[in-house]
Structure formats: structure tokens, C-alpha cells
Amino acid sequence: MRPLGHIANPRMNYEQILFDVTDRIATITLNRPDKLNAWTAKMGDEVREAMKAAEADGQVRVIILTGAGRGFCAGADMSLLSDIAAQGPPDPQHALAHHTTGEQREGIAPDFQRKYSYFPSLKKPVIAAINGPAVGLGFIISLYCDLRFASEAARFGTAFARRGLIAEYGVAWMLPRLIGPANALDLLLSARIIDGAEARAMGLVSKLSPSETFMDEVRAYAKDLATGVSPRSMAVIKHQIYNGFFQSLEEATISAEQAMIDSLKSEDFKEGVAHFLEKRQPAFSGR
Question: Crossing angle, helix 181-190 and helix 171-179, to 10 degrees?
Fold first, then answer.
């Protein structure tokens, strides 16, 4: 783990994740391999803190989220679910209060300030490197990443209907937008487990790779984004995509016209033209 002294108040002693920055890529690794990285409240807090650190780090261009060992994330820790089953649900007002990120970010739609839906509000692309089971809450976490790459060992399932639960944390809104209503209903109603090949066919993942070369391929893609693409362009395009979920075509077109005018004034536009004409690698500043 490299020192992060240039980030304000970084947290160095994570207990349930690993955080590394190399080649302008921040890698956040869920680190409970003996539990297939089952999600806990502490893990959620640490992931959010690491995401904020990566967002604030001017050297970071891309974020990878993955899991240690054989799993990506097997869902919520079953001890938590067992306690709720035995003791009953928490007070509704208390539960709702804990469904936000605990802070309000100026200029960010409320939709992307909820407990797990904040990933789209980050200006940097977030890639889910799904190396094994992504089930239940782990499945939802992967949906809020911008891209999903899977190894041949990856497995996906919603689990909720088989636990007497419902489609939680916005998955009923997000999943149909990624794979269509029929596929979303299939996965949510049946809660069946699918492999990486079926996930790829549905469009749930962008790329499927052999386990042996998986992380090398993910990092190669991330490195290409980190070194060959304007970070300013990535941030604006990501904003356009997610805001577009709530816009008409006319509204999206009008906002894109203004964004294009702004981009033509940017340093990255000048560099984008210059490196192409000079036949060299780009040196984008993000400005």
C-alpha cells in the first residue's frame, strides 16, 4: 500500500478492505476471503471512505473494486440476517436514516446519494472486477459500478426471493436499465444462480475472461483509461449517462450542446488534438 499523504486525512488502517494505488489505478479489495467477502456495515463504511480517497487523489484516474480469494461478495453477512430474523426488523425511521451516505454532496442528484447508489456520482470510472460469486447485496454493489468484468469463476444471483425478501437498495430500478425488464424479472423472481457466460449474454457484464488472466486483463483496460483518455471527458460522459436516466432526448441534447462548448475550451481538448497530430502518447491534465 502506497502512502497517501497528499490526501486529506486518509485512513490507513482498514480492517475489512485493502486499498492500493498503482499506475493511476486505485484498487479496493473486499478482504474477508474466509467469508467470501460477505458485506458488513464496517466494510460498507471502509469502501465509502476508500472511494472518497480515490476520488480526492489527483493521481487516480480509475477505480477497481474486487474481492480477495475466491469470491467477489457473497452478500450481506448472514449473522446480521440471523439477528434480524430472531429479533425483528429495526425501527423504520432508523433504517431509513441509514440508507443514505450520511452526507449531502452539492450538485449531485439525491438518487445518487443513497447508501450504495453513490458510485455513479463519483467522477472517476468504477470497474467491478468480479472474480467469484456476486450474490444478494454483492450483486447489487456490482450493479452500481460503471463496468462489470467477470472471470469464468464468477457467479451471479439476487437471492432475495429465496430469503423471503424483496428487491432492495434500488435493484428493481437499476437492473432493468442494464439488462431489460424480462431478464431483470427472471433474475429477481427466480433468484437463480447464473454463470459468467449467461451474464455476458444478458449484457450484465462487458467482458468474460479466464481466471488465470482475469485481473491482468482488467488492469490492462483500466490502465488504458488511466493513460489514454481524458479524465475530464470521462467525468462529463459519466455524468451525462446517469443524468440521462431522468432526461428526455431534448433535455439530453440541449445539455450536451453546452457540455460540448465547455469541452472545446478545455486543456484536455487542446491536448487531445495535439497528441493526435504529433503522433505521441497523450498527457491529459483533467482540466
Answer: 130
H or E segment at 209? strand 207-209
Residues 99, 97: Cα–Cα separation, whole Å: 6
Domain positions in the chain: 17-228, 231-277
Amino acid letter, 232: R
> Cβ distance 180 to 152 under 8 Å?
no
Strand 155-157 vs strand 133-135: parallel, antiparallel, or unpaired? Answer: parallel
Laid out side by side, the sheet with 17-22 consists of 17-22, 25-30, 62-67, 126-130, 147-151, 207-209
Superfamily of domain 17-228 in CATH is 2-enoyl-CoA Hydratase; Chain A, domain 1 (3.90.226.10)
Query: How far separated are the first and last CA of the chain, in Å rounded?
Result: 28
State the angle between helix axes of 231-244 and 249-264 in degrees (0 to 180), rounded to the nearest 10: 170
Contact (Cβ atoms closer than 8 angstroms) between residue 242 and residue 112:
yes
Look at the alpha carbons of 225, 156, 168, 37 in this order and tell me if their dihedral is positive or negative.
Answer: negative
**Along the chain (287 residues), what's the average pLDDT of each consecutive run of 10 residues?**
40 87 97 97 96 96 98 87 57 51 66 88 97 97 98 97 94 97 98 97 97 98 97 96 94 95 94 94 93
> CA angle, corner 45, sides to 160 and 125, nearest 5?
80
Helix axes 267-277, 249-264, angle to 10 degrees: 70
Q: What angle do CA 253, 256, 261 make, to 5 degrees?
A: 135
